[in-house]
Write a structure and sequence with these properties.
The complex is a heterodimer of chains A (493) and B (284).
Chain A lengths: L1 H10 L2 H26 L3 H18 L7 E3 L1 H14 L1 H20 L11 H19 L8 H20 L5 H16 L28 H33 L5 H17 L5 E3 L1 H9 L5 H22 L4 H15 L3 H8 L2 H17 L2 H22 L1 E7 L5 E10 L4 H6 L9 E11 L2 H16 L3 E5 L3 H10 L7 H4 L4
Helix pairs in contact in A: 2-3, 2-4, 2-11, 2-12, 2-13, 3-10, 3-12, 4-5, 4-9, 5-9, 5-10, 6-13, 6-15, 6-16, 7-8, 7-13, 8-13, 9-10, 9-11, 15-16
Chain B lengths: L2 E5 L6 H15 L2 E8 L19 H37 L5 E7 L2 H8 L5 E5 L14 H9 L4 E4 L8 E5 L4 H12 L7 E7 L4 H16 L4 E6 L3 H11 L4 E5 L5 H7 L2 H8 L4 E4 L1
Helix pairs in contact in B: 3-4, 7-9
The chains are: A alpha/beta (493), B alpha/beta (284).
Chain lengths: 493, 284
């Protein structure tokens, strides 16, 4: 089976995969450099990371055709670690992230993505787009009008050129044209070379220079955990985007392990942690990339271009990079979500906006997602609690009332449940029919207890009928009302 | 009643596949179930746009484009498949078969086969598929995978059906070819045909002994059997014997080598199916 899939996943789409790999590699270079700058490390850290991650995920990932490399979402989480402890600790944190991600894959946490609602995902990409855009703003600080003109010109090329030809990647032309202008005009523009060291050799295997003790762990763990979560989240989200685009399935847990392995390799070869990239992946599929070969090719071409063209990369003006990153930001943002604000339920929109706001305030996608997930859970619980109805009818003799309970009973709906009974009415018998209700937790059982005991203290005989099996086990284990001496226990309740 | 599962894709091998099916169905007194797969080949890209930029909601646009493109293409493919199956049924009915059913499925043949095989006794398919026409020596991409995955005997149809009078068992002593011999003894498909057995490769006393023993079993079942043990490269020896003895059907066990070796150099089985221009009945 493995071999059958092997050749299918690698060699069914060879020419297209190779060309798409080149298109993606061309776009990966400016991004890897830009994300290194965001993280505060030399561009070579991001470039080595992109090479390692792309190649390793090509072999070990669970989603053929997906592009993984150094990413903005991850870079944003590393800023303070790099600032306070330096590159070596980042490499150590990258290794730990990889280990945690593999662990997550083994524990099948890929399934946990189902708890992240669509609103939270939309909030995630919107927040990411905003942060990538904001990260470009410092480049304008102190720069003259030339910078603005160059960036604007770059964007015109990026979005205008495809109207003329779709045969050449427009971001590449943008970079080439802006570089030529910058070199020959003699304008005072910052270049990539000013931002730190660029790779001149192949990446080399190195152990991070950190002491192996608990102090180190205490430093890197608080970074590795959000890196793990955000990395897996963006990767799995991207994987499901590719699933949709290509109408095929992927192995989410294998993807977790692949991402982990990629980060471990990246950490050992002097690269930063990364994950799947939504924008690059869309570019890959758009360019015709479908198989694992496209991912591997993007990494290999990236390295070849960097090593061969190393000297030229240095003279690329930052303006070109900023233009490409603004494009990435525009492409990452879900513009449809703005339109949807009017159509979608208010709670969904609120979850989305809250996720964005929290991320923009904390610069931490993990916190934003956690808040978003929590909010969606609370809003769902609130809605599910509304799915409860209690009706009743009085017998002709006026002595016996039957209450019909329908719906979900749990901690949120327990209060409404208890309030729905009329204890003022004088009756000799009450029947509570819960055939069409379900008791989910001890709060709801306690509420039923309270109602039953209250009736009994008034001297009313109570019958609970129709507890379904699941409810019955829970009630049988927890409830007091059906045990001897129930009434006496009431004060303790 | 026995059932033959015939896979068709409308390639130039299709008519011959039906003829082979008819031959086998008559001998086995079997009903025929035709299957046509609509494989959208999602692992391949239909469109490519190298502009490499990301505009607002590029992902959504791309999805819409891909859906539109595939919608038209796959609707056509479905209609084409329907016509194909109608023609196939007519072909089989004209050949004198009455019990023919047909079915279309989405997905890959190999995947569909695992459940379809359950209720069938023999699988028939063409040597080359629709997409393999351009490369003459290239086997149908599905063929090798089907043979490898199939739990039933697979009859691989050649380009043109010739009346089958003589068959050759390529005897390698493996468990798959033993299965072939058991099939020949128990099933009526090959009964009454002239049987030749050939042992190629390294020949020693043991090989000779097992060959004779297997031939003995076939003789007991009423076959007239000639045996031959020829040293040399199996691929070469077998294809030579096929031409010399004017064999109409090659019977063999499939894929004895390790997976790694197949991946690198391809297997004898694949080579045999490719070089011999006669139908092959394969057992795994």
């Amino acid at each position: 089976m493995i071999f059958k899939d092997f050749s299918k996943e690698w060699f069914s789409n060879v020419p297209r995969d190779l060309v798409a790999g080149i298109v993606v590699a061309l776009a990966l270079i400016p991004e890897a450099i830009a994300f290194s700058i965001i993280a505060g490390v030399d561009p070579q850290v991001g470039l080595y990371a992109s090479f390692c991650i792309a190649v390793v995920t090509a072999f070990m990932g669970g989603r053929p055709g997906m592009i993984s490399a150094a990413t903005g979402a991850m870079a944003l989480l590393m800023i303070t670690l790099v600032k306070e402890h330096g590159l070596q600790y980042l490499l150590a944190a990258t290794l730990l992230t990889g280990v945690l991600q593999i662990l997550a894959g083994w524990l099948r946490l890929g399934e946990a993505l189902k708890f992240v609602s669509r609103s939270v995902m939309t909030g995630f990409v919107n927040a990411l787009a905003i942060l990538i855009f904001m990260a470009q703003l410092p480049e304008f600080k102190g720069a003259g009008w030339q910078m603005y003109v160059m960036v604007a010109g770059g964007l015109v090329i990026i979005y205008g050129l495809p109207r003329l030809t779709k045969a050449i990647p427009s971001p590449l032309i943008c970079i080439v044209v802006l570089t030529v202008i910058s070199v020959f005009s003699g304008m005072d523009l910052r270049t990539v070379g000013d931002m730190g060291q660029l790779p001149s050799t192949l990446p080399m295997f190195l152990l991070p220079q950190v002491p192996l003790n608990f102090e180190t762990l205490a430093i890197i763990l608080p970074y590795a955990i959000p890196l793990t979560v955000v990395g897996l989240l963006e990767s799995l989200m991207t994987a499901s985007i590719v699933d949709d685009l290509t109408d095929s399935d992927s192995n989410k847990n294998r993807e977790c392990i692949g991402q982990g392995a990629a980060n471990i390799v990246s950490g050992f070869f002097g690269g930063m942690a990364g994950c799947a990239m939504i924008g690059q992946t869309v570019i890959n599929v758009k360019s015709g990339g479908r198989g694992r070969l496209s991912t591997a090719a993007s990494g290999v071409f990236l390295l070849i271009m960097i090593v061969v063209l190393g000297g030229w990369v240095k003279i690329i003006p930052m303006a070109a990079l900023v233009a490409v990153m603004i494009m990435v930001s525009i492409g990452t943002f879900s513009w449809a979500s703005l339109k949807d604000l009017r159509i979608h339920p208010k709670t969904s929109s609120l979850v989305m906006i809250t996720t964005v706001v929290v991320v923009v305030l904390t610069h931490n996608l993990a916190i934003g997602v956690a808040v978003g997930v929590l909010m969606s859970a609370v809003s769902f619980a609130h809605k599910a609690a509304l799915l409860m109805r209690i009706g009743s009818e009085l017998d002709a003799d006026g002595e016996h009332r039957t209450y019909h309970v329908i719906g979900n009973l749990f901690f949120v709906s327990s209060g409404a449940f208890a309030r729905a009974f009329n204890f003022r009415e004088v009756l000799s018998r009450v029947t509570i029919d819960v055939t069409r209700a379900h008791f989910w937790d001890i709060s709801s059982v306690a509420a039923l207890d309270k109602v039953v005991l209250k009736f009994r203290r008034d001297g009313t005989e109570v019958n609970v009928v129709g507890l379904n099996e699941a409810s019955a086990t829970l009630v049988g284990r927890v409830a007091l009302h059906d045990k001897p001496g129930a009434s006496d226990n009431m004060p303790l309740h | 009643m026995k059932t033959i599962l015939t896979c068709t894709d409308g390639s130039s091998y299709a008519p011959s596949t039906y003829d082979h099916t008819a031959w086998a169905a008559k001998r086995l007194e079997a009903s025929v179930h035709l299957i046509h797969m609509l494989d959208p080949h999602r692992e391949r890209a239909d469109i490519a746009d190298f502009s490499g930029n990301l505009g607002p909601d590029t992902g959504e646009e791309l999805l819409a484009d891909l859906v539109n493109l595939e919608e038209t293409k796959n609707r056509l493919a479905r209609e084409k498949g329907k016509l194909l199956l109608t023609a196939a049924i007519r072909h089989l009915q004209e050949a004198g078969l009455s019990k023919v059913t047909s079915e279309q499925q989405h997905g890959e043949l190999v995947e569909a086969l695992t459940q379809l095989e359950e209720n069938s006794d023999l699988v028939v398919m063409g040597k080359r598929g629709e997409s393999a026409g351009f490369a003459k020596q290239h086997l149908g991409s599905n063929l090798e995978r089907v043979i490898r995955a199939s739990i039933r005997p697979v009859l691989v149809a050649s380009r043109k059906f010739e009346p089958i009078e003589r068959f050759l068992i390529a005897y390698d002593g493996g468990p798959s070819v033993e299965k072939a011999i058991r099939f020949a003894i128990e099933q009526p498909l090959l009964k009454g045909l002239e049987c030749h057995m050939l042992r190629a490769g390294r020949i020693d006393e043991k090989a000779e002994y097992f060959l004779q023993e297997a031939a003995g079993k076939l003789r007991q079942a009423g076959y007239t059997v000639t045996t031959q043990a020829a040293p040399g490269d199996p691929e070469h020896v077998i294809s030579e014997a096929v031409t010399q003895k004017r064999i109409n059907l090659l019977v063999m066990g499939a894929y004895g080598h390790s997976r790694i070796r197949q991946l690198v150099v391809g297997s004898t089985t694949t080579a045999m199916v490719r070089t011999c221009h006669i139908p092959v009945l394969m057992f795994r």
